[in-house]
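Here is one such protein, fold included:

. . .
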Amino acid sequence: MEIRFAKNIIKDIKKLDSKVQTRIMKKLLWFARQNDPLNFADFLTDSEIGRYRFRIGDYRVIFDFENDIIKINLVGHRRDIYK
């Protein structure tokens, strides 16, 4: 499995606390190592921002999944991510 980030996502992740950054990256790598990472994801009804989300503590990772590639579209706190 491969993880790809949209251009602006790296900047968004760098704005987060270092402990949160580490937690998110470790969990994303864990998801990518699973046989079917979608077993741990929720489907989103608003596919404008992405089709799936991972929940990592109070943070949400919005992504698309195709051809064994997890493409990260958004990363943010649960109170802000869907605005």
Observations:
- The CA atoms of residues 25 and 61 lie 11 Å apart.
